[in-house]
Amino acid sequence: MSWIALIDSTRHTDTAHPGLLVAGLSLLERAVRLAKVSGCERAIIAASPARRVAIETLANAIDFDIEVAVFETESSALSDLLLQAAARDAALARGDASLLVLRSTTVYDRGLIHTKELDAADQSAQLRPILSTLDGDPAHLLEIPAPLVSQWLTRARETGFEALSDVTRAGSVDVRASQKWQAAVSDLPSAKAAEDRLWNSCRKDIDGIISRLLNRSISLAISRRIAHTGIHPNHISVVTFSLGIIAAVCAAMGGYTWFVLAGIAYQTNSVVDGVDGELARIKYEFSLLGEWLDTLSDDFKDVLFYGGLGIGAWRTAEFPIDSLGPETWLWLGGISVAGKLVSMVAYYTWLIANKRGDLLAFEWSFETKSESESTALTRAMSNFKYLTKNDFIVFFAMMMAFFAALPYFLFIVAPGQFFIAMSVMIQRIQGSKSKVSS
């Protein structure tokens, strides 16, 4: 089903005006972009007479692949806004589109919105509008499935309801308690609080230990500085890949100084790599292309670094085993590269088949088991995966460079990449078997 967003912009104050920037986007554009990534094809914006011109100017400047229209209203009552929006949109009036109601004066956790869930729901089942609650209070949004829109327009016309708190008295509603959040913006302090909450949402439970303690704080500081500029996530992916090339070239030069520079560039790449995801999350600039650019940049950075390190060690370092010559470093670099390429092929075929571009989407069986189904082995595998995340490995490589031991990093990644490649292949085979058996 198609979705239309009704954005209530009648509640702005002079301080928290529609153009107020919060994490790089105006309040109005943030609401419109949220509507788009939630599946809405059009956004209808309700504006007060005093702000209609300003809101139209802001709306016309939004370039985010969503149709935007503005109407003027002197009422902020929810029932009036619904009726006036329906009067301006034929699909909505006919009940041919679902409706997402939200406010441009509120910053939302995207997880509050259930449009995709409603799209996937069995249409023969009894559908109800969804009203989320936060600590018992209604969230500033309402989701009405298309089959119910005409019915709710009739209720709005006959009985009316002033606010979201009145919706439950107007008809049957699916009221859901949520652990997500929203932040109402009425002045500069509340805007700052909403912005802080947005940035803090970029910290993930799946972050590795170095990301938690170091990388994420630095990348968030960078993201905060550039969020208001024209820099987009794909630009950052180009920067991170360039840093990967620099790290590989430095490693290939060999010698202590070049190895240290390689380690620093490698770690800098790891830090900056978080920026593209943060910008995409904060500014709703998600795309399959962006996911693939980030994934390819991450993987080929490792491929180039392993190869460069093998060359640099061959050029400048003696192999520690007397019976083996310096060319053994090349073999170790080659094994590391080969293992990485094998795992990349296995990952990428899965991503392509599932129309995804982010490696975090790859499903490991030990991660999908419930707590009751987990075993000592699955828990050990999960802990091993956490401790060997890329952020830790890259930081460890930099520290080895400082201690004049970077070539020995290949003793870790050569068998490590082989182990990862075999694990991914086994997981793919197990996944294929489970699909056949089901």
UniProtKB/TrEMBL annotation:
* Pfam families with a match to the protein in the record: CDP-OH_P_transf (PF01066)
Gene3D superfamilies xrefs: 1.20.120.1760
Identify the stretch annotated as signal peptide in this record: none
> Which GO cellular component terms are attached?
membrane
Instruction: Tell me a Gene Ontology molecular-function term this record carries.
Output: phosphotransferase activity, for other substituted phosphate groups
Would the keyword Transferase turn up in this protein's UniProt record? yes
Q: Which PROSITE patterns match?
A: CDP_ALCOHOL_P_TRANSF (PS00379)
| InterPro entries linked to this entry | CDP-OH_P_trans (IPR000462), CDP-OH_PTrfase_TM_dom (IPR043130), CDP_ALCOHOL_P_TRANSF_CS (IPR048254)
Keywords, ordered alphabetically: Transferase
One Gene Ontology term from the biological process aspect of the record: phospholipid biosynthetic process
Q: Indicate the family of this protein.
A: Belongs to the CDP-alcohol phosphatidyltransferase class-I family.
- The protein depicted here goes by the name Uncharacterized protein
Which species does the entry assign this protein to?
Bradymonas sediminis
